[in-house]
Amino acid sequence: MFEEDVTSVTIPTRVGQITVLPHHTELVSILEPGELLVRTNDKEHPLAVSGGIVEVFNDTLAILADSAEHATDIDLERAEARAKELARELKSEVTMDMTTYSLLEKQLAHETARRDVAKKWRKLS
Question: Under CATH, which number does the domain 8-70 receive?
Answer without folding.
Answer: 2.60.15.10
